[in-house]
Design goal:
- The structure is a single chain.
- The protein is mainly beta and 749 residues long.
- The chain has one domain (39-748): TonB-dependent receptor, beta-barrel domain (Maltoporin, Chain A, Beta Barrel), CATH 2.40.170.20.
- The chain is built from 5 helices and 42 strands.
- The protein has a 22-stranded antiparallel β-barrel. It has a 5-stranded mixed beta sheet with strand order 3-9-10-7-8.
- The longest helix has 20 residues, at 3-22.
Length: 749
């Protein structure tokens, strides 16, 4: 961080003091104000405007009025957030905040953005593709959250809390009908359990065809096929004790189109690198293999099955003491993730003729976690949260018939943490957070010469077992200034992403281990409430120092990659993880909410990133000047509105969101670092317009009927690439549909 940034930070803080002295309310209290949103960013319930954290939260009302259905939809509304479906992985989510992104299917790799569901930290990015129908709250915390949420939250945290049992009889159902034969049915049933408890049962069924037509197979591919069910219990065994239990089962048998794209670039010596073409159309053909860039039609005869089946269990106990709350949260997540490329029909079926890269890969994953929290509830100057955390995970992978190998990793981590907030005076508050973590991983892998050898458990190319141990002390220091118009804060925080092993490694050098990566962040925030709380305006500026960045590098297996003087011959492709990068990321985030009238609410969000590699060491050469930070658009922006008007026997809601995101890049291949990235290895900038009209009507029996007509991304038809994926000699991408329309019918009794 240079002196200029410090000067700017000081100027902003100083100006806030001047503004405080000159600011005065000029009108009487308004009849309508912006709704107060309560968040748990610091593991206690607080108004979002009082929290010295860059946090965005959506109310239930905003989610329903804006027809926000998936976690992925949040990227349209929150600055410097990039969320998409994960390539190659069913039910998986790729999330990036402030340019810190994880985009891989391997369970031995750790995430950069933590996902917390009902208080339980999800150590994997699979199984977190949640529908937001039955929601209590959703929060996105930007920046490292290492002290309160721990390892692997260097980008931030997405917190999702589903509604608790109402303890009353009730039933609600929602049916979504969209193009491409999409039907999404969701139901929730509530009932009391005696005088002090309740039960909630939720079910969902989602089916959809792909919007793309496969001209080789002369048919439209099946896309989504998801079933899920959940049971939640909530009861009070005594006056000051609450117990919750949640069980989830999900079965996602989705099949996706795997779009093959070509790579055409110039290597470091000026020669053309080869282009891979699944159809044999000839090397040098640039662009993708679709009939047109709208991706409505694809040539590829290769279906891509990517499913996941699993269970989640959550157990929580909350004990209200005189001046404290004691919480115990336990969670278990157990799933199997299936991937099958080139098999027509069910997984493991006959491989399609002339399949270039047949892969059947199963991954079994299980995590168990325990967390104990002691939260003060004091009116005095000192408040704190103390905690203990433990997690253990096990990941097993079985892959073949191309790249036949088995891998297993067992990991555990334990941490102790504390977060203090002290009111030095009426205006000044000092915050301090600390977390100490120890972790250990045990990894083993076996490579096989053939599929038959794998079945016979006869490893011939590699059989090794290795350990990884690490410890880390993270901190957060916050200086907060309370003013008449809001609050100003300055914070310094750290976080880390765990190191470990590469399950796709096929040589001792490529297996690892690799080291943890770390981020150091300085953040300046202004939280303001203006015009008698009709206007909320929040500004955040930050700088990230990102060191030992883990780089996943996929290259050809021809021995051109040399590690410690040894040419690497890896079979089909070589996958390495290197602590190669040092990155600087600076940014600004602006969020505003304006209650213009009783009926009209306007919202806006702008995020700007300035990111670049300071260093990228690769085989003794610094390739930083040519590297692009992956999945880090220079800007994100949105403006949204909702307008509510009363009509006979109900209300009519008009809502819309116009969002924009700059161009960003996929994987960087440092082996050919002096190249011009082809158009289809990047995601082009795009603008999206979502509109909806909702009619709510009260029924004579006391229930409510809701009818919504909506259009998402209506500005342009066709499709677009969301996740280009470099696989060495060739590349794939995940296409998604753009313009689509639908209707929703909901009943709530």
């Amino acid at each position: 961080m240079n002196i200029t940034k410090f000067v700017i930070a000081f100027a902003i803080i100083f100006s806030s003091f001047v503004f405080e002295k000159t600011y005065a309310q000029t009108s009487e209290a308004s009849e309508y104000t912006v709704e107060e949103i309560i968040v748990t960013a610091r593991k206690r319930s607080e108004s979002i405007q009082d929290v010295p954290v860059a946090v965005s939260a959506l109310s239930i009302e905003q989610v329903e009025r804006g027809n926000i259905q998936r976690v992925q939809d949040l990227e349209k509304l929150v600055p410097n957030v990039e969320i998409s479906d994960m390539a190659f992985a069913g039910g998986a989510m790729s999330a990036g905040i402030r340019g810190l992104t994880f985009d891989d299917l391997e369970k031995t790799f750790e995430t950069t953005v933590g996902v917390v569901i009902d208080g339980v930290f999800a150590a994997s990015n699979s199984g977190v593709d949640l529908d937001l129908f039955d929601l209590e709250s959703v929060e996105i915390l930007r920046g490292p959250q290492g002290t309160l949420f721990g390892r692997n939250t260097i980008g931030g945290v997405i917190q999702i809390n589903r509604s608790r049992p109402t303890r009353e009889f009730g039933f609600k159902v929602k049916l979504d009908l969209e193009e491409d034969n999409t039907t999404d049915t969701k139901m929730v049933f509530n009932a009391p359990l005696g005088d002090n408890g309740g039960i909630k049962v939720s079910v969902r069924k989602l089916e959809s065809d792909s919007f793309m037509f496969n001209v080789t197979r002369d048919e439209r591919e099946k896309a989504r096929d998801l079933e899920s069910a959940s049971v939640a219990l909530d009861f009070d065994p005594s006056e000051n004790v609450n117990v919750q239990f949640i069980f989830d089962n999900y079965n996602d048998n989705s099949q996706h189109n795997l779009l093959a794209i070509t790579k055409f670039y110039t290597n470091k010596i000026g020669a053309n690198q080869g282009v891979f073409d699944l159809l044999g159309q000839g090397a040098g053909t640039s662009g993708d293999l679709s009939a047109a860039n709208d991706y409505k039609t694809v040539y590829s005869a290769e279906p891509f099955y990517s499913g996941i089946q699993g269970n989640n269990m959550t157990f929580k106990v909350e004990w209200e003491l005189d001046n404290h709350t004691l919480k115990y949260i336990a969670g278990n997540n157990d799933f199997t993730e299936l991937m099958d490329i080139c098999s027509w029909g069910s997984p493991g079926a006959v491989v399609t003729p002339n399949c270039v890269y047949p892969v059947v890969r199963d991954q079994d994953y299980e995590q168990t976690s325990h967390e104990l929290q002691l939260i003060s509830e004091s009116d005095g100057p000192l408040n704190y949260t103390l905690g203990l955390f433990y997690i253990e995970t096990e990941a097993n992978m079985d892959s073949g018939p191309v790249g036949n190998f088995r891998s297993q990793q067992e990991a555990e981590a334990q941490a102790v943490f504390a977060d203090f907030s002290y009111d030095v005076s009426e205006d000044w508050t000092l915050g301090l957070g600390l977390r100490y973590t120890e972790e250990e991983k045990e990894f083993a892998i076996q490579n096989y010469a053939s599929f038959a050898d794998k079945i016979a458990r006869d490893p011939v190319s590699l059989a090794l077992a290795r350990d990884f141990k690490d410890d880390n002390l993270q901190h957060k220091i916050v200086l907060q200034r309370n003013t008449d118009f809001g609050m100003v804060y300055l914070s310094h925080s750290t976080g880390f992403r765990s190191g470990g092993f590469n399950a796709r490694g096929s040589t001792p050098e490529s297996v690892g281990p690799f080291n943890s990566e770390e981020v150091e962040t300085i953040e300046l925030g202004i939280r303001s409430e203006l015009l008698d709380n009709r206007l909320i305006l929040n500004l955040t500026a930050f700088t990230n120092d990102y060191t030992d960045k883990q780089e996943v590098i996929v290259t050809a297996a021809d021995g051109s990659i040399v590690v410690d003087g040894v040419p690497q011959f890896c079979g089909t492709t070589c996958t390495f993880v290197r602590n190669a990068g040092q990155v600087s990321i600076d940014g600004i985030e602006l969020e505003g909410t304006y209650r213009a009238t009783q009926a009209l609410t306007l919202r806006s969000a702008i995020g700007i990133l300035d990111s670049g590699y300071d260093n990228f060491e690769y085989d003794g050469q610094n390739v930083a000047a040519d590297a692009q930070l992956n999945f880090a658009p220079d800007y994100t922006a949105s403006i949204s509105f909702d307008y509510v008007t009363n009509v006979q026997n109900g209300e009519l809601i008009f809502a819309g969101t116009l969002s924009a995101k700059d161009k960003f890049y996929g994987r960087f291949d440092p082996a050919v670092y002096n190249y011009e990235l082809g158009a289809n290895m990047a995601v082009d900038k795009a603008e999206k317009l979502d509109l909806s009209v909702t009619y709510n009507r009260d029924l004579s029996n006391g229930g409510t009927m809701t009818l919504t007509v909506f259009g998402n991304d209506i500005l342009e038809d066709g499709g677009y690439i969301v996740r280009p994926f470099d696989a060495g000699a060739f590349a794939f991408a995940t296409p998604q549909k753009r313009q689509h329309f639908g209707i929703s019918l909901g009943l709530d009794f």
